[in-house]
Design a protein that fits this description.
The protein is α/β, with parallel strands linked by helices and 551 residues long. The protein is built from 13 helices and 21 strands. Strand 9 and strand 10 form a beta hairpin.
């Protein structure tokens, strides 16, 4: 075996949790290496097609489990490159949720007030701009009009997009070719590199073991840049401290595979997985009713016919995010452009008696694709996902050369989760079918189970060692010097897009991680400004620092 390389800090993954950790530790003086299993692409590399081997298949990881499938980022920058840039903050009630364990899931130290200064730090680095109605796509405007007609409010979603350079091309999900999306490629990652961080794409971490001096050895494979099933090399890196931020679908797999070398993992590693309660509905609008009921008109006499025009999620109804409502009855309804492909298969013909993948009803629906509106529902679930034994390598058994895999997640929705889905479905139907505006049907779960683009909680923080893998400072219980800062650390469903909360939690974890790094012999300090040099966020959290370190 090749001799082990040496570094102070090894970060696994370059999404929100990994990029933020890499920046702060490097800016503080530590030697930092980042291993990312996906490729490193930039604006000119993002193709606007769905061909195998294009950027679309390279930068995604679609893993089908038993009852649940996960869609995530697989590239430098992680989910920030392929998400729709929606950056809302989690509602206040989320932090008081009990979920399936019957008591508060979140650590006592964290509620909305405690997290707000850390949200502010993220917003300084990734400006979350609330769009006005001139920025909103036509489908978003139609959703808002339908909500108003039904007596509900709807508002543009705060986004990390430079609207002055956005071309409304609707390829945001495949990476922004025009550099309008403020992904991590434009803030934390270049700032980390400027402070000496080395990022290695196509490096897939397999497991961790211990070194004789109390540090950790990270074992990785180098994968082929065209066929992710092929390994073209490998190696090991020794580090005094490790940040695991590979995503909620991969972080627990890496830790489970490490158990023979590190010793027993906390019970909650690979348990309590949440799909953020996500579900999709498709409405097929009647052009005449859009004109007659909503009073909308459009070019060529078509009031709508605009599914393909615009951006990602632009308008959301948050009326059901009311903390006084019972748990599992709180959810958001967000207009979403989901591109053709998997969505064409899973979207169901309204009124059909059974799932329709082909036939007259499905053909008629597909012929009306310009009149579709997709509503993305984020509800409260019961954290019922469990990861089984890890595959031989990686986070999944690869089915194709890119993108597709079969993973070890098992998910069987509880009655609570099913009730939450049903209530969100009913609300969506009530809004969109009033006065014959549209016909609505939820996507089927019969093909790939339930599905999520925001996997959470598979290695979560908490106060109770029986139900949380990490303490409230994100350190892995029983394994000092290993921290987890990605979506797997979030305790449960957030009812909104989670990027802002994942990032805020990672920012909050950094003072404690820096202190732990010092105890492990790393010369590092905490106190870097935002990546662009702004300091307001740093001043805003100054008084919180004493409560976030152990020594």
């Amino acid at each position: 075996m090749t001799a082990a390389e040496q570094t102070d800090v090894l970060v696994i993954g370059s999404g929100f949790g990994g990029a933020i950790a890499a920046y702060h530790l490097a800016a503080g003086g530590a030697k930092v290496e980042v291993l990312e299993r996906g490729p490193w692409l930039e604006g000119k590399d993002f193709d606007q097609d769905y061909l195998l081997g294009s950027s679309y298949t390279k930068v995604f990881d679609f893993v089908a489990g038993d009852g649940m499938s996960l869609l995530g980022g697989n590239c430098v920058g992680g989910g920030s490159v392929v998400y729709f840039a929606a950056l809302p903050r989690a509602p206040r009630f989320v932090f008081e949720r009990h979920g399936g364990i019957g008591r508060r899931m979140w650590p006592a130290m964290i509620d909305r007030d405690a997290l707000d200064p850390w949200y502010d730090r993220v917003a300084e680095a990734i400006p979350a701009r609330t769009q006005d109605w001139n920025d909103v796509s036509y489908p978003g405007g139609l959703w808002a009009a339908a909500c108003a007609h039904a007596g509900h409010t709807a508002n543009p979603v705060p986004v990390g997009i430079d609207t002055s350079t956005c071309t409304n091309c609707n390829w945001m999900m495949a990476g922004c070719r025009f550099d309008a999306k403020r992904s991590l490629l434009f803030n934390y990652l270049p700032a980390a590199i400027a402070h000496g961080t080395r990022i290695r794409p196509l490096h897939e971490v397999q497991y961790l073991s211990r070194t004789d001096d109390g540090g950790y050895r990270v074992h990785y494979n180098v994968i082929d840049d065209e066929d992710y099933r092929v390994t073209v090399g490998g190696g090991v890196i020794d580090a005094k401290l490790v940040i695991v931020a590979a995503g909620a679908g991969a972080t627990p797999v890496i830790l489970q595979r490490s158990e023979p070398y590190l010793g027993s993992m906390p019970h909650a590693v690979g348990r309590y997985f949440s799909g953020n309660g996500e579900r999709l509905n498709t409405a097929v609008f009647d052009e005449d009713r859009v004109r007659d009921v909503l009073g909308l008109t459009g070019p060529g006499g078509r009031p709508y016919g605009a599914f393909q025009i615009g951006k990602g999620p632009t308008v959301a109804c948050w009326d059901y995010l009311d903390g006084s409502r019972p748990e599992y009855s709180r959810f958001s309804l967000e207009q979403l452009y989901f591109p053709p492909g998997l969505g064409t298969i899973l979207a169901q013909a309204p009124g059909a008696d059974a799932p329709t993948f082909f036939g007259v009803e499905k053909k008629k629906m597909l012929d009306q694709w310009r009149n579709w509106l997709i509503i993305f529902q984020m509800t409260e679930d019961d954290n019922e996902g469990v990861f089984g034994p890890p595959p031989p390598t990686g986070n999944a058994v690869r089915i194709s050369q890119q993108m597709l895999g079969r993973g070890p997640l098992r998910y069987n929705p509880t009655p609570n989760t099913l009730r939450g889905w049903a209530e969100a479905d009913a609300a969506c139907k009530d809004i969109l079918e009033r006065d014959g505006l549209a016909k609505v049907a939820p996507w089927t779960n019969d093909v790939v189970g339930a599905y999520t683009v925001h996997p959470l909680a598979s290695c979560r923080i908490g106060d109770d060692p029986a139900t949380s893998a990490l303490d409230d400072r994100h350190e892995l219980r029983g394994h000092p010097g290993i921290f987890v800062t990605d979506g797997s650390a979030v305790p449960g469903a957030l009812t909104v897009n989670p990027a802002m909360t994942i990032a805020a939690l990672a920012e909050r974890a950094m003072p404690g991680i820096v202190e732990a790094a010092r105890r492990r012999g790393i010369e590092v300090g905490y106190g870097a400004p935002a990546p662009d040099g702004s300091t307001a966020g740093r001043r805003g959290v100054r008084d919180l620092l004493p409560g976030l370190v152990r020594g």
